[in-house]
Design a protein that fits this description.
This protein is mainly beta. 3% of the residues lie in helices and 40% in strands. It has one domain: Immunoglobulin-like (Sandwich). Strands 1, 3, 6, 7, 8, 9, 12, 13 and 14 form a 9-stranded mixed sheet that branches. Strands 2-4-5-11-10 form a 5-stranded antiparallel sheet, with no helix packed on it. A hairpin with a 6-residue loop joins strand 12 and strand 13. The termini are far apart. The N terminus is likely disordered.
Length: 208
Amino acid sequence: MTKRWSAACGALLLSGCSALPGPDPASTGARARSLEFSNPPRMQGMPCPVTASFAVAGDSLQVHFKVVSTTLSAKPQLAAGEYPYEYDVVELFVRNAKSGTPAYHEFEVSPYDQSLQVDVFEPRQEYYFGVRNGFTHSARITRDGWEADMNIPLATIGWDGKRPVQLVGNAYAALGDAGHRVYWSLFELPAGKPDFHVPSAFRPLLGD
């Protein structure tokens, strides 16, 4: 297994180190889509607590997450060795299907604006952990939950500025404490132990 850590990002991850990404996709007319699949499965009639919307603005992908929840499992400051995915978090896994490589990219943001980026070349075998190639983000706690925005340069996910870009991936949320954690996804994942690293479940992110 090849895991490479970007040392420069350790402090970034702990501090949040965010930058406002500009208008969120919701303001551009992008349709909010529910993360309707969950593990464990949600009860019939239970509303989906997470939505995500996607839009390309210039040479960036803009993503907006909205989480509706009366509880929050998160820490304002992460300790050394802790990561956003251990608590409430929204995540985007994305790749450019026109890039000619199976590599994909993972982006995470917590309610307190902590973040993580991972470039994955082979799930759990070769990946670069804690990179930060122009990814900016913001998060805020609201009356009915929290929201997060991501601004991701298309160059970060394999666009050379010339050839067409085709963004495929999946959007996720992991919510709740260890004893009551629920894993949500935009596109359906295989049953069994929760696992977001399933490239076969990636689907187009833009359009209906």
